[in-house]
Specification:
Elements lengths: L2 E3 L2 E4 L14 E13 L7 E21 L2 E18 L6 E16 L5 E17 L2 E14 L5 H18 L3 H5 L11 H5 L1
Parallel strand pairs: 2-4
Antiparallel strand pairs: 1-2, 3-8, 4-5, 5-6, 7-8
Protein name: SipL SPOCS domain-containing protein
Length: about 190
Amino acid sequence: MGIIRNHIDVVGITPEDQLPKKIQNGQVIEYSEVENIFIPRSNSNIKSIYQIVLDVKVTAKRNVNIPIGNIVIIDGFKKIKIIYCDKGRYQKANVLDLKLPYNTFVEMPEGKEVASVYIKIIDAYFDLIEGRKLYSHIVYLVEVNYKTDSFIEDNYEKEKLNEDIIKEVGICDERINNNQDKFKPLVNIDAEFL
């Protein structure tokens, strides 16, 4: 069972404990999408909706360089399964599986490349407008993780800092890599402070 919204059981909303708390090597974007979903004529008219099951999959992503920066176009599809009661004489339960396109984009900081993209649904609201028309409002969270190769400058700065510390303390590279001096003190404390 999912979350009850407008008397409809909505399954597929990501629980709060599974949402990212902190992104160290990436970014998180939240946005919402409003649309009207039309039921195909091959299905009967809807009287009431019991349950809606949601799922979003990313199928492709591509970088686009624009004059003011870099954006990543994200393509995929969203699956919507609607379990409903029809307006017929017997009011039987019906299942409708829809596969709709999903597209969005993310602005990227300069020098960063995308490693992975995850789409999470953090809220959804549906309302039956007419027998074949359904109002849909879905709130998404897009988690973008950057490639670690784009952090070469950060790694260079860390290496420089390590070299500066070694020089400050007075440890030479030969003593660090020499296994024979493993148990000998690296710095003679008495000689340093006398």
